Amino acid sequence: MKPYLLPLLALAGTFAFCTAAEAQRNPTEPVRPAALADTMSVHGRVTDASTGQGLPGVTVLVKGTSTGVSTNHDGSYSLALPGQHRTLVFSFIGYTTVEKTVPATRELNVALRADQKQLSEVVVTGGALQGKVAGVHIGRSERVKGDAAKARVMIRGANSQASQPYYPAPQPVPGEGESYASIQENGFHSTRKDPLSTFSIDVDAASYSNVRRFLQQGQLPPRDAVRVEEMINYFQYDFPQPTGADPFSVTTELAGCPWNPAHQLVQVALQGRQVATDKLPPANLVFLVDVSGSMYGADRLGLVQAGLRLLVKELRPQDRVALVVYAGAAGLVLPPTPGSKRGEILRAIDNLQAGGSTAGGAGLRLAYQVARDNFQKDGNNRVVLATDGDFNVGEQSDDAMERLVVQERESGVFLTVLGVGQGNLQDKKMELLADKGNGNYAYLDNLDEARRVLVRQFGGTLFTLAKDVKLQVEFNPARVREYRLIGYENRALAAEDFNNDRKDAGELGAGHTVTALYEVVPVGAPVLVDKLKYQAGAAEKPAPVSADLLTVKMRYKEPQGSKSQLLERTLRGPAIPVERASENLRFAASVAQFGMLLRESDYRGEATFGATAKLAETARGTDAEGYRAEFVRLVKAAEGLRPGAESYGAR
């Protein structure tokens, strides 16, 4: 027996095991407890019946369960309903508790009425509340109105013998307590002095769903939370499938730049080969779930459990799944189990409970060990880490975690990171782990995002077509005077790294698309930098549009390969007006423009929120799943949140 199969007393109380009766059940007998039935999501808003104003901090519980959330600052909420439960209980200090059945529309708005009998005394003079009063949790995100800096709440309920004073905690600043890597935005480069642009691809999409979380809560995201390339690559585009032996196709396009009419926009895009789920190689998956105390809540561990349940439904008999958890220590909850035994896998997921400190390093080591011990040579070997990134036991520093993951990736095991939670989200650490672990990073802000990542994009998220994918673009100085890569700041590589097969780069999953945009200054356009007095240079003579604008080279390796293969494409021809460009370029440009507005980029030019929404509207295409329509709504929401937006034309 392997040592990690031994019972770990350090994990006692962290998760519950099956009862003896369940353990004696015939393993071939199908198991479908009520709690494991299909989930559905519900959303709505809770208001004061007399004023119509939104009520923050209302407790919304699924009747008969411990699943619940608190309403946001404007009274809004969203919640995943476990099993067949369809009744919600709305309770708030000073208001009558209400029970409502979720309608078929999945939108449930509730108006609460004040109930003076519930309270003997409530004195509020302002601030934010924190604590637990008469069984009601009051969190930092909940506010009470008033001019004073402090609040004192005294509750005398039916079960209380004395008034209990509670004092406010400071209202959190958006992103406070969360960690994001600093971004120094790319600037323009002179083609004559620096003709090569080299970078690693990035298929992560965590930044977009995280930005969405802020905007839907009525807050602007921190600037460093906005990674423009991840926002662009969140969306699927209609690029052609590869036709040859290479695992991806390459598409290039040249058009006018929407935020600077004197400049041009270059799109370089990769389209990974679509692979039907039943054609994917066998999967050796290890779910590594953070069950520390910081993961408590429906938007954290509860959301992870709901997402993993959805993923389990996609498993095939040839797939195998193990479940490792970590809190104060790490342990194996479920040994490698065939996908045909869904009941066993679902029970293990359902029994997880949060509590304790966070030994992230120990959890990663154990998960990789389990994956290595069950390695499938021609299969998909992957650790799926679900966490808020708040590691506080063992390896804590980014450098220590990077060394651990870099060492482990040599085994051929890939890494997928699923981020959850808010207020202490360690985005910087999770992005680093995915980057260094030959993997991808997604942020789950709701159950639909979990379904998108783990079900709709099952192959792209969990199956790698090509690893260490690098791009190197060489610009022709006869047509391009300056260029700027939009985004990819933390994926930049030195020119010599392109041909170095030991240099790590990004991975491309089945069906994934990767889009890179360059803003270029054509020869003959107004200069950005004055000509140098003491430098002798050739006079600018624009080349004809039939000449090459650029050459793009790509290197990639097979998933278990060590030697890279080279592809090369050229782009020539005139720049077409942006309104006549493809839907792919126009929509990608609108997302890039939105990212620059959120970051208040020095390069946003004439961009406005209104123009961004209009450009995106013209490029929505079929939009079967509604993500592009949602993007337009987010642009309009951000416009109303930006202080002093009129100063730079964001109307």
Automatic annotation (TrEMBL):
SMART domains named among the record's database cross-references: VWA
The UniProt record lists the keyword Signal: yes
Protein name: von Willebrand factor type A domain-containing protein
Matching InterPro entries: CarboxyPept-like_regulatory, CLCR, Uncharacterised_YfbK_N, VWF_A, vWFA_dom_sf, YfbK_C
Keywords: Signal
Limits of the VWFA domain: 284-458
Signal peptide start and end residues: 1-20
Organism: Hymenobacter duratus
